[in-house]
């Protein structure tokens, strides 16, 4: 299911939501200028690493490092290893920013066109109304805190992983959780794909977002029950944690909680 638009009007232009989208796209545009060819790393100390991989490893949120503040990580023949792990001695240290900074830098990096496209689509459709409900400064805090909670949820459940997580998905999941409680009766115009066919229908926001959450939670359980937890391509626990944060925190941030929940009867 791909949401297209909702039927909840905003009272003012969503400056923060647009700014976040612009920043994410700008950073991704910069990422596209980086070489993905092995050996093109800008660091002369890390042979064989591409520029793109170097940025991901250095600025992504690495679960082990988040749970061991101060621990540095490096690259060895076994991949990425951190202080306190077997194989760290003799590895080539990454030139990473402080561990706490990577929680935020990771939110603005993406792994591909579809990754950023879907993230920005969801942020635009649902973020503008959530921003409208709480005002700009609070929305910035809400968004970033959602990303922090998401990163640490993923880290706690993949504690030994040195695979860095990147993307705005966790923070946006917080926005989705907040939207679910703010506007459960909103209608969302949605493209539904059924095998080779596609149709456009209106779906209540509550149904759409609950389905989205279930599609994140079930694979997250699968990550916990496999030895490869943390090596998956999607950080599902970050989505679950961000969404839960949105549900819990929205009443603390929203100034107009529930006042526009019904929304207009149809689309303009």
Summarize the helices and strands and which ones pair or pack.
Blueprint: E1 2-6, H1 15-32, H2 51-59, H3 63-67, E2 73-76, E3 79-82, E4 92-93, H4 99-105, H5 113-134, H6 136-157, H7 169-182, E5 187-194, E6 197-204, H8 205-224, H9 236-253
Antiparallel strand pairs: 1-5, 2-3, 2-4, 5-6
Helix pairs in contact: 1-5, 5-6, 5-7, 6-7, 6-9, 7-8, 7-9, 8-9
How do you describe this structure in short?
The chain has 268 residues and is mainly alpha-helical. 50% of the residues lie in helices and 12% in strands.
Tell me about this structure.
With 268 residues, the protein is mainly alpha-helical. The chain has a single domain (2-34, 98-253), classed as Rhomboid-like fold. The protein is 50% helix and 12% strand. The strands form two sheets. A three-stranded antiparallel beta sheet has the order 1-5-6. Strands 3-2-4 form a three-stranded antiparallel beta sheet, with no helix packed on it. β2 (73-76) and β3 form a beta hairpin. The protein is elongated. The chain starts with a strand and ends in a 15-residue tail after the last helix. Mean pLDDT is 87; it is low at 225-231 and 258-262.
